[in-house]
Structures are given as structure tokens and as C-alpha cells.
Amino acid sequence: MSETNPAATAAAEAAPHRYTAALAAEIEARWQDFWDTEGTYAAPNPSGDLSGDPETAARPKKFIMDMFPYPSGAGLHVGHPLGYIATDVFARFQRMTGHNVLHTLGFDAFGLPAEQYAVQTGTHPRVSTEANMENMKSQLRRLGLGHDKRRSFATIDPEYYKWTQWIFLQIFNSWYDDEAKRARPISELVEKFASGERAVPGGRPWSELTEAERADVLGGYRLAYASDAPVNWCPGLGTVLANEEVTAEGRSERGNFPVFKAKLRQWNMRITAYADRLLDDLDALDWPEAIKLQQRNWIGRSEGARVDFPIDGENITVFTTRPDTLFGATYMVLAPEHPLVEKFTPQEWPEGTHAVWTGGHATPAEAVAAYREQAAAKSDVERQAEAKDKTGVFIGAYATNPVNGEQVPVFIADYVLMGYGTGAIMAVPAGDQRDFEFARAFELPIRCIVEPTDGRGTDTSTWENAFSSYDAKIIASSNDQVSLDGLGVAEAKTRIIEWLERTGHGEGTVNFRLRDWLFSRQRYWGEPFPIVYDEDGVAHALPESMLPLELPEVEDYSPRTFDPDDADTQPETPLSRNEDWVNVTLDLGDGRGPRPYRRETNTMPNWAGSCWYELRYLDPHNSEKLVDPAVEQYWMGPREGMPHGGVDLYVGGAEHAVLHLLYARFWSKVLYDLGHVSSAEPFHKLFNQGMIQAYVYRDSRGIAVPAAEVEERDGGYWYQGERVSRLLGKMGKSLKNAVTPDEICAEYGADTLRLYEMAMGPLDVSRPWDTRAVVGQFRLLQRLWRNIVDEASGEVTVVDDGDVDEDTLRALHKAIDGVRGDLEGMRFNTAIAKVTELNNHLTKRGGALPRSVAEPLVLLVAPLAPHIAEELWRKLGHTDSVVHQDFPVADPAYVVDETVTCVVQIKGKVKARLEVPPGIAEDELEKVALADERVVAALDGAGIRKVIVRAPKLVNIVPA
What we know:
The chain is globular. Strand 22 (692-698) and strand 23 form a beta hairpin. The protein has 5 domains: 6-165 and 608-688, Rossmann fold (3-Layer(aba) Sandwich), CATH 3.40.50.620; 301-512, Valyl/Leucyl/Isoleucyl-tRNA synthetase, editing domain (Isoleucyl-tRNA Synthetase, domain 2), CATH 3.90.740; 695-729, no CATH class; 741-894, Orthogonal Bundle (Isoleucyl-tRNA Synthetase, Domain 1); 898-959, Ubiquitin-like (UB roll) (Roll). The protein is α+β, with helices and mostly antiparallel strands. The chain starts with 5 loop residues before the first helix and ends with a strand.
């Protein structure tokens, strides 16, 4: 240093105890070791293995959580810990205000990235995942996060996923009782079937059913069940893909291979049984309204009617929200995957079949097969796109419209999806634009049944588009039993539903957009299902004594791939190759003795482990129970203001608005119904932090260049002599703009990074990263240090009995009052501003600080910058940690201003500013304002028409 910067050397020699990055690093490492050694952040349970100080456990509790991080090989950039720092600040504040705080962090460690890395390198996913976790733990520790490390775990730990498997079995062994509105053990349903209290579907006595037949019946009720489900099958990758992994062009995001619709035997969760409760219970949650709206839209509750269209002695059932338009239904459309398509497709075209309906095929079977293949090559997004060209084919069968007896042709078309409603629609082309376009393309009747209010008339041959309205009258809709003519929509709906129910053609019902949760993945790196199959294909649950069922070793982690265009292939999972693991002889304890079984070779999705991890934090070492009931009741049980219980604060990104949060809510409700927990909701309060953004620089080819090497000059941005573009966007390794927390900690210290991230703006708003601005918070900490520590000697300059002037008392107590309120409300940026204002006041004041000022100052800083606060607290003579000190309380006498500034305006322009008491009455304030010499001069003898007083801050005078 002395060779390159003599001035810096001289300054360091003059102030050897200055707060520098090196000193910050030494302080921070030392206090982090202290916290770990002393167990500073250990939160005692009221009972069990983690019970501790009874006095602490008796305090009001606060359970504060972050969303699970995934241990990425790239490590953290400065955007990742934004939420972690925020929850840490809030948790520290809660400890200082008398709460027993549970705050910890685990890892959501199953997932596709580790498996892909294993495929590429042959490295076991556990090896790479655990290495990534260690790196992230080191990075997070450096930030000084106050986590109870005794409670941390990873979802890949067998002692953790033992209970994930156990929960799956609770769901598998349950059914939803619609009358009781809750889940109940499947054994109770079996008893009802066996006793005859409940009729067995199909009408046969339970005693006459084979084991396989009984399994099929129960599969229709179980909350976890296996079924042939339509999936996105990608032969080129050898795996099933989620909808999010398929492009709008119907190809895989990874590799750009064709994706086909296929039916595979898959595990599902019957989350639809809980649709009403998932909707209704949102009202009592303290969540952002935008997130609640997304969940409501995803669940998609709609009221309407189920209508049966008879066909060949059976029915095609549709759900419609507009049963009042039933007289206008002129054809039907089934999803190409609908199970009834093949059943109702005849060998020959009916006489008189319109040529355009056949697609040019000789037989209905050929037409259906060809169209199904065409539809299978499209994604759901592509199928639902509002394209002008409507495609479809007549299946060769007619159904009967129940209200008028008309024979309506049945088509298949890709704009109807099996996953929505019943997979069948009644088409009313006059009232739906997609149906209208389809009817025009296939020369089908369009019948007006809602009186147009836009002047177009009822002759549909002149229409250019469909007409739909909830305000119009129903017309041309009557038979000899019911008439809707002249009725409004609401009244017409009621009347037609009454008729449907009276005649047995349907019933009023509620439908949901929500579909059952597809729970299978054809991958290796996930939780094995605790299910085995006997020689008849009947699924059996493993007994609890056989859990956890651990992942076996396999030689090849990659799925088998096929010809990318061969849609008729089937996936081969990595687990299926370990024959010794798959084929086993087991005694399941059911009295049958050892029998041969075949294990399930799919694995659970990565969502499984994050559906219940809040419960494991409570009781992480319990090997006998999911969670001790007293412990769960203490941390998550219902209480005033939290009728469904749950975590007190859950912080994470808004991108998890639906899937993770909905799945976790579903699992909580099942566990609640079965009596395993007292909380029916997992997360009472949800807070979505914003995103830290960064500038992305791209060259003329559009390729990102290293942001750290870009120069700003001549009004532009340059990289290696070439001008580049700049756009604010995400931060990430691939965009070459990532800044790691390690870099900032090395240059300024962790406390500076913490302060900067919290000071950048409101926590729920995205904000741009600016490394150059970090130094502002570093200087705040340097001034704080100088206010208490002599930089030359390292000794504390605080005096124990110094007088405190009134201005300083007011500055101190206003800061205490403001910071306390801001920390409680998670307004960390304004809390830091108030601390800065107080610290600046003390710097300008000069001289030694009285202890009565210095100690509250350190305590105010403690939640935000804990390392420097611990160091200063120790230098002030304390031997205990600052973490559990009481947060300062403001003296109300010093919070209220002695005077406030009142603005006096004449004709809207400021003419005077008056210092007045904050409690001044309006009439008194008016007298003071009118008597002020500046106001008298401005009026210059003019009369006064009106005086508007807003005590104590405004007087507005309107001259005559």
C-alpha cells in the first residue's frame, strides 16, 4: 500500500482504528463465530428435543420464514439475499421487542439442474448438490444471518423425505367426504361399502368384488391416485414435460424437440376436492391482493349447469356457465383426447355427411386418428390461441339437444382441452366467437337466442362476429315444458336449471378451472414413491416401518431417448433400470406374508418437499412423529387474528403465487383434516420482495458482454472499443452482469451490503443495483464508529454522565419512535434514513457522546448492521450479546415537536412561514397569521374574502 498510495498509508497510521473493510471483515468473522458457539439464535420449543430456556419459550412467538432456496452451482449474486436480509432484520427486531423468534433456512435440493449435471458429467446428483449447499451456506453465513442452525435441513436428507413419503401415504389413504367437507381415512369408506351404508359404484356388493376391482373403486375416491393422464411426451428427451417447459410452437424448450400429447399412467393429487376451501380461506390470509387474485383465477370457480346430451343410450356431459343459451346449441365439440370419442365413432360416415366435415377421409375412424395425431403435436397454449383458421373433424355421430330434441353433430377440435370442464362443450355459435368461427368454417347453423342490443338484428347470416351479453333478453328459446323468451339472463338461468333437474337432463353445479395435480416425474433425482404393485397391478402402500424408501444407485441418470418424431414410444425411467431395487419380495404386514412386488419407478416432483417444510423447521429431529402436537400448536396454531394459524411471516418471490403456495395449502388442509396439525393454512402473512435488477450490456450481435468491463464515455457505453447498448434487466451469470455478495463483503463488509440492500427502496419494489452507491452506507458505518470510538487509540469516547441538550434528546427519541415503527412495518429504507439523520446530528454536535445517547444509537442499528452493533456494544462495556437486548422506547414528550412550521399562502403563493405550537387552535392560528407583518405587507390594505385554516400547518388567505 505504501508504494502505491502514500496518502492512504499516512491516514492509516494516523487512525489505525478506523472502520475499514479489513476491520469490518475481522469484526464480522469474530462475531459470526461467537453466535455459532453460543447458540445465540437458538429458539426454544415448549417441549421436545429443542426445548430450552422456559422464560424465552414463554414469550410471544414469531415464526419467520424465507422461501426455500435451491442450491445452484453458480452460487449467490447480490439479488438473491434481498429477502433473506429483510427477514433477518425483522427477526432481530422481533427478538429485541420480547419475542421468541424461530428463523432458520434449509434447502430445496431435489430438482432437474442437478440431474442434468449428472447426465452430463456422471457426478451423482447428491455430490454436486451437497457441494453447492456448502458454498451457499458459506455465502449466507458471511451476511450474518441469524438462523437457528439446529433446525436446518435439505429435502434430500432421507430423514426428511421419510416424512414426505409418510405424508404422501396419508393422502393416498384418504378420501374427501363431501358431506363432512373434510378428508377422512379411506378405511372408513371401505367400512361404508362393506356394510352397505354406501352404495358401491356399479351396484355390485363390495364382498363380490375382486381385490383389483376394489382398488379401482377406491382409486376414484383416494386423494392420491394413479390414472391414465394426458401428458406432454417428448421422445427426443425421453421424458414428460410440464406445460411451462413446452414452447408455443409445441416443442421442448430444452433441445427444441417435438412434444406430443400422450396418455401415461401417472400419480395425481385430488386437489380439486379442496377447491372451495382453497378459495374461501384466502379471505382470512394476510397476503397481497394480487397474489390472492391469481389464486382465485387459477382455481376458477364458475357457477352454471351440467347438461347431458343423450347419444346411443348414453350421455355426453358438458358444463356451461350459460345454460340459458341451450336452445342455441347447434353442434358439440369434444377434446380429441376425450375417452368417448372412439366409443361413438362409427365404421362409416352417416348418409348425407357434409364433405367439409370429413377432412377428406374415407371413414370416421381415419378422420379421427389423423386429427388426433395433428392435435397431439400442438401445445395447450398453441391449441387455445385465437387463430382465424379453425380445425376439427366430425366423428360421425349425433347427440340429442335435450331442450328441443334436435340431432346435433359431434366434432372433435383442438380448441377444446380435456383438462378443462368435462372435455366437451355445447357449441352456441351465436354467442361465442370461437364457436362462431368454427360454425362458419364448417357450414353449421348459427341460431340467435339472445336479442342483439347493438342494432345488428337477428339474421345471423349478416353477422360478422358473435354477440354475447348479460344484459339482453332471451329469445327463440321455448318448448312445451319451459319458455325462456323475454327473460333476462339470470332469471333464464334459474328457470332452465329447474327444468334440467326436474326432467333429469342435468343439474345446477359449480365448476372449477383447477385441475388435479399431476404428481409423477420420469426422473431420478426426486423422492421415490412408497408404493409397490402386486402381480395384478394393485398399488399397495409401504408400511411406515419401511420408510424412508431411499433412492437406489443407478449407472445412468439420463432417461432413454427415442426418435424425436416417434410419438408412439413410452418413457423408460432411470429407476426402472435397477432391477434388484424394482423387483422385491416384501412382507407388508397385512397378514399375507412375503409376496413379490414391483416398485413404482416414477419419482415425486420437486414441489413435494416444499409442501410441508415449515412443519419440519418446528421439530427437525423428531423421528417418531411428523411434528410434536404441542410444538406445532405453539408455533403455528390458530390465535386471534390468525383463525387458520400458520407462519407469522413468509417472504419470497411473486413467481410462486400459484403452484408452490397452492400445493402447500392443499397439503396443510389434508393434514389438518386428519388431525395431524392444528393449522389449516401454512402461511398466514405473505410478503413478496421486489427484484434487484442490473444493467445488461449487449454488443452489435445482441450478445451480453461483461458489465464490469464496460466504460461510460462520450454519452455512451463502450466495451473493447465497440459501442454497446444498455438495458435494465435481471441479474445473472448468463447476462454477465452478476455481482456476488462476496465481492461487496470483501470491499466494504457484510454490514454495508446489508444496509445498502435495505436502503435501496421499499422492499416490495424492484430496484437497480449500483455498486458505486454502496460506499454511501459504508460511510454511514464509519461515522457511526467515529461517534463512539477514537480512531487513533481505539478507545471509547463515550461519557457516562454527560449532559444531553434538548435538540439531541428530540433527535434521539424521534429516531427511536420512527425506526421502531418502520421496522415493525418492514419499511427498512426509511428506518435507515432515520438512523442516518440521527447519526449525522450527533456528528455535527461534536464532543463525547453521553452513554444515554450512544447505547440507544447502537441498539437502533443492531437489527440492520448486527456485527458493528455487537462490537460497539461490547466496547461500551457490556458482556452479553446485543441480539437479545430490549429495543429502545421513545419518550413521547420528546417525540412531539415543540413547534411546527405553518405555511401562509395568499392566492396560492407562500408569503410567510410561522413557527407555532403543534396544538394551536384554528382561530388562534388565524389571528397569528393575519397579524404577521409579512402577511400585512402582502395584502397591502386589500380586504379578505375568506381564510382557510388547516391547523397547525396551513393558512390560505383569499383576498376580496
